[in-house]
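dumping this here so i dont lose it
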């Protein structure tokens, strides 16, 4: 998460207003302890994952589990640019398809001919 200076100042002012200047140092210490505890749990989990997977996955990073990051790491920046182009094409095709579906559902075709029913499909109970 990226915080700029104005957001940090706003959060500090809000914290002072809500908790008061006398309780703020104590809350900051508690928040630091919680953050340290969570970071330690995450590092332990990552270490256990590496240990369980074995030495062939010793250089595994959690960011490698993201498919886009995995492809970019192993195929290079050119492949990432090509994937972005493909994604843009897919978005364009999806938009065209959505527009066609919307146009088709908005203008139902009306005919003067009565609807004809199809003959019943033969059913063989022994075939199933």
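and the seq i came up w/
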């Amino acid at each position: 998460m990226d915080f700029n200076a104005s957001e940090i100042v706003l959060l500090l002012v809000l914290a002072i207003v809500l908790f008061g200047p006398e309780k703020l140092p104590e809350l900051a210490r508690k928040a630091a302890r919680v953050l340290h505890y969570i970071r330690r749990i995450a590092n332990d989990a990552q270490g256990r994952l590496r240990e369980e997977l074995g030495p062939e996955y010793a250089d595994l990073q959690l960011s490698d589990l993201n498919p886009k990051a995995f492809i970019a790491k192993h195929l290079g920046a050119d492949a990432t640019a090509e994937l972005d182009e493909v994604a843009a094409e897919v978005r364009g095709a999806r938009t065209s398809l959505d527009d066609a579906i919307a146009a088709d559902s908005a203008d139902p075709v009306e005919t003067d001919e009565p609807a004809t029913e199809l003959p019943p499909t033969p059913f063989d109970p022994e075939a199933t």
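The chain has a mean pLDDT of 81.
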